[in-house]
Specification:
Elements lengths: L1 H17 L2 E2 H13 L10 H20 L4 H9 L4 E7 L4 H14 L5 E7 L4 H6 L10 E6 L5 E5 L4 H14 L4 H14 L2 H11 L1
Parallel strand pairs: 2-3
Antiparallel strand pairs: 1-3, 2-4, 4-5
């Protein structure tokens, strides 16, 4: 049963990799969607279109400003396995807008890390194989050995500290309010990607 399940996941990953794009291609796609007043995903409502506009601006800013420390770069460059970081996302996702530029900045430091992007709603089987607490939360990074397509690790949908903030708030209030979501965006801006970098270094260890 386990062998069959692993074979199915490998086939799902292979299919998604064939449909994947580079980070640069993803950024080009998002910018084009902004010009077309559209968005990725199944929901093309004005709300989600507006999220995509906002996130395009966020990613442009983070692409220019994310900084890696010398010690972080040393750890990243030391990693010697050939892997793919396959990331599920959508252009409307606020967490993804803060996180994907950081993932790209880390992956750029080591040619052994191939960063590929797929859209959640176009890859339902992959998303359903990597749920978070039963939910289709994104962004979700799946770390895969290139040679065998074996899944080594995952990351997401948020860095550890942000996840703890969300869990505590949900426990106290039952759901995330617009006010909390604004607080979370301010946290991302203050953190400057450093918590995400720390978590990514952890999966490279």
């Amino acid at each position: 049963m386990e062998i069959l399940e692993n074979t199915m996941i490998t086939d799902i990953i292979k299919d998604s990799l064939n449909k994947s794009m580079s980070y640069d291609e993803y950024r080009t796609l998002v910018t084009a969607l902004v010009e077309q007043q559209s968005t990725t995903g199944n929901d093309k409502s004005e709300t989600f279109v507006n999220y995509t506009v906002l996130n395009d601006r966020r990613m442009k800013r983070w692409d220019k400003t994310v900084k890696l420390s010398d010690s972080a770069i040393e750890i990243i460059k030391y990693f010697s396995e050939k892997v793919t970081w396959l990331v599920l996302t959508e252009s409307w996702c606020g967490d993804a807008a803060h996180i994907l530029p950081v993932i790209n900045k880390v992956a750029e430091q080591n040619a052994n890390i191939d960063f590929r992007v797929v859209l959640r709603d176009d890859n339902e089987h992959l998303m359903n194989a990597f749920l978070t607490n039963g939910g289709r939360a994104i962004p979700k990074l799946i770390m895969i050995y290139n040679e065998t397509l074996e899944v080594i690790n995952t990351f997401g949908p948020r860095p550890t500290i942000a996840t703890e903030m969300v869990d505590i708030y949900k426990t106290l209030h039952g759901q995330l309010t617009p006010e909390f979501k604004e607080d979370l965006q301010r946290w991302y801006n203050k953190d400057k990607g450093q918590s995400t970098i720390a978590d990514l270094l952890g999966i490279l260890a």
